[in-house]
Amino acid sequence: MTTSEERQVERLRPTPMLITAVAVLVVSIGVFAANFATQRSPVVWGWMPAMLGTAIAGWACWRTAFAPGLDLVTRRVWRSLAVVCVLIVLGLTGDARFTVLNPGRLDQQHDIPTSICYALAMLVLLWALLRLPMAKRESRDRIMVRFLLDAATISITVGIFAWYFVLQVANAWEADGSAAVPVIMLMSLGLVGSLAFVKVALSGFGGVDRIALRLLAAAAAVGAVGGGLFPLLFDLHPGLSGSQMFVPATLLFVAFAADRQRRAAGVPQPERRRRPFSVVPYLAVAATDALLLTVSSQAGSAVLTVAMAAVLLTALVVLRQVNALSENGRLLGRVDANLVELNGYQRRLTHRATHDALTDLANRSLFEQRTRAALAETEAGAADTLSLALIDLDDFKAINDRLGHAVGDALLVVVAQRLREAVREDDVVARLGGDEFGLLLRGLRLAEATEVLDRIAESLTRPVHALGYDLLVKASIGLAEVWPEASPQELLRRADLAMYAAKERGKGRHAVYDARLEQDQAADAQLGAELRQALDNGDFTLVYQPIVSLPDGEWTSLETLIRWKHAERGFIGPDVFIPIAERTGLIVPLGDWILRTALRQAAEWQDVFGSGAPGEIGVNVSARQLREPGFAADVRAALADSGFDPEKLVVEVTETAVFDGGVALDTLQSLVTLGVKVALDDFGTGHSSLGLLRTCPADTLKVDKSFVDGIGGRSEEAVIATAMIQITNGLHLQAIAEGVETAEQAETLYRLGYRFAQGYHFSRPLSPQQVTEHLEAARVLTV
Ligand code: C2E
Ligand code: CA
Ligand code: CA
């Protein structure tokens, strides 16, 4: 059974059962009317419709008790009602038998078993009604007080009516010894009716359908009025009973109620608008007032006048009270509405405070909160493992700077979505800021957690479509696993460390935290401090690796590469310390030293060897240097100081450095204005976009070693190497194949169209001394 809010209780449908119940009532009225003056039909006929109507109602209640979608309490109510019906059928059978056996029977006269049946029926009914759940809005005590007050009000009213009518018509029964029976019946009917009524007025309804309950209350009212008052109003001849007509009438309402409940089963009840006051006492007051007026009218005009004044006064007091109560109700209603609105605001505020506005992922504060909670769980032994991953998009800044923030944002949204899809429903995914995401994986072993990371990497291989751009993104991911006594901050720090390790190993990778990373980091920090020292001490040297022409292998230019001769650790490669120098900013003074030293050296070779000197000198410049505001001016100054021809200086920059756009590109442009040439280094490994070749003023592409390595086979790299030479030719750029290690590679490259190469096959990087020697030897040769 669905419980969607849109579902409505289907309209009342005239089922065969309901039609039969109505027909039974009509027949009973017919029989009653026919026999009203004198008994025309056999007396037992009068009881048949009542029995049939009750049986139908009983059957309807029983069926409803087993309808799907009802809660236990509601089932219990309907089961009890079915039992009540069975007891009434038994009572009616007893009545019919008694009437047939005692032709002079007066209405409301029963034998003992019949009375027991009716009494039991009432007890069961009372019990069922009293077990209905009360409204939960107020405290139990207050509800109880109200219930008792209302019940007392009704009981007094019913009591006074009963007393009055009994006084009026008591003579009718005086001849008979059983005068007490109808009075007790009347009182108990009144009591049941009033309790039912009050209970319905106060009931929280629970699963019992509201309309069904109202129909039941109507049944109670019809039963109480009909069964109790009717015999007092009409002096019926023996054999005829008001019950013959009022029982089917009462039970018709019960049948309708049961039918309604069955159709409403499983349909959520709309929130009820509560009346701010109970109508029960007012109805009681009105009824008693009516009685008072009736009685006083017989007692003379003085009493009647006073009574009328009293009635009028009560009416005015009631009006005043109702007025105040409804005003209160209105105010309360407004407060309620305001509260609902406030709650909504509060919910939205909390959501906003804990979620990222762009991606709607959890934000850093919620992430930390969840991490803390998950850690507490693992500590308490509720979960055994926990791992935290930090995901950082590679080169996101470049995309943002180059294509604008709107594209960057769109990219982040897609990435967030892919992250969500790559993990389980209850894993926490958060955006921690910028292009950094966090992932909390519970209950996964290391192998399973890294599988998730692979899945994420895999999901990011699909190009991201962002505002018309198809972007390729990669992410560096660091993973840290929980350990005893882990704190959220420490877990995050470890994941962060692992993420930096992943970035250092190359983009688009993941790394898992282990203690060695700490040592590496400590060593890094140590190196960072020592770099400065090394620069002051003159521990750096430059080596030069020739770039040659194909196929002859003649030197055409030199690339400057830095070396660090560490006092204890021997030679440290630039792959190790350049990233540190970049992070610490030391690359700026270091780069300046490299440039000036290389230019001085090149100028010297130029002086000594003239045209025999290498045509150009390449200097690697890092992204950080290009972003340094005065960089172009520094180069100009260095060129001026060395007296070296700007046109023979080649600045080697990586694609990624210029993909950043902005300042870096402006700097390159200024350098080009000076006459300096630009080479795109490691081409093919970064953002390789042909668009870049249009905006970046490059003269040369240095095709990365990875493509050269694959050149012999049929691999993708070979295809790319082939495509790249075609592109460079098409764009009138020079291509240099990097990292050529074998003669075969050199030959293949030549065949593909490459005319320049660099690599160990031709020469390793050489000291200035070695370069000088080579140049001298060459001069000797040419002379
Ligand atoms: P890069 O600019 O791509 O330099 C080429 C690197 O490949 C050099 O490593 C070179 O020794 C190596 N190499 C050349 N031919 C071969 C070969 O046939 N096989 C192999 N396996 N390797 C070959 P190195 O000197 O260790 O430099 C590594 C990277 O460090 C450079 O890559 C560059 O990105 C950076 N770097 C080096 N010197 C400087 C510098 O003065 N300034 C800056 N900013 N970065 C530098
Ligand atoms: Ca280079
Ligand atoms: Ca390179």
UniProtKB/TrEMBL annotation:
<dbReference type="InterPro" id="IPR043128">
    <property type="entry name" value="Rev_trsase/Diguanyl_cyclase"/>
</dbReference>
<protein>
    <recommendedName>
        <fullName>Diguanylate cyclase (GGDEF)-like protein</fullName>
    </recommendedName>
</protein>
<feature type="transmembrane region" description="Helical">
    <location>
        <begin position="17"/>
        <end position="38"/>
    </location>
</feature>
<feature type="transmembrane region" description="Helical">
    <location>
        <begin position="211"/>
        <end position="234"/>
    </location>
</feature>
<feature type="transmembrane region" description="Helical">
    <location>
        <begin position="179"/>
        <end position="202"/>
    </location>
</feature>
<dbReference type="InterPro" id="IPR052155">
    <property type="entry name" value="Biofilm_reg_signaling"/>
</dbReference>
<feature type="transmembrane region" description="Helical">
    <location>
        <begin position="44"/>
        <end position="65"/>
    </location>
</feature>
<feature type="transmembrane region" description="Helical">
    <location>
        <begin position="240"/>
        <end position="258"/>
    </location>
</feature>
<dbReference type="InterPro" id="IPR035919">
    <property type="entry name" value="EAL_sf"/>
</dbReference>
<dbReference type="Pfam" id="PF00990">
    <property type="entry name" value="GGDEF"/>
</dbReference>
<feature type="domain" description="GGDEF">
    <location>
        <begin position="384"/>
        <end position="515"/>
    </location>
</feature>
<feature type="transmembrane region" description="Helical">
    <location>
        <begin position="302"/>
        <end position="319"/>
    </location>
</feature>
<feature type="transmembrane region" description="Helical">
    <location>
        <begin position="144"/>
        <end position="167"/>
    </location>
</feature>
<keyword id="KW-0812">Transmembrane</keyword>
<dbReference type="InterPro" id="IPR029787">
    <property type="entry name" value="Nucleotide_cyclase"/>
</dbReference>
<keyword id="KW-1133">Transmembrane helix</keyword>
<keyword id="KW-0472">Membrane</keyword>
<dbReference type="Pfam" id="PF00563">
    <property type="entry name" value="EAL"/>
</dbReference>
<feature type="domain" description="EAL">
    <location>
        <begin position="524"/>
        <end position="779"/>
    </location>
</feature>
<feature type="transmembrane region" description="Helical">
    <location>
        <begin position="112"/>
        <end position="132"/>
    </location>
</feature>
<dbReference type="InterPro" id="IPR001633">
    <property type="entry name" value="EAL_dom"/>
</dbReference>
<feature type="transmembrane region" description="Helical">
    <location>
        <begin position="77"/>
        <end position="100"/>
    </location>
</feature>
<dbReference type="InterPro" id="IPR000160">
    <property type="entry name" value="GGDEF_dom"/>
</dbReference>
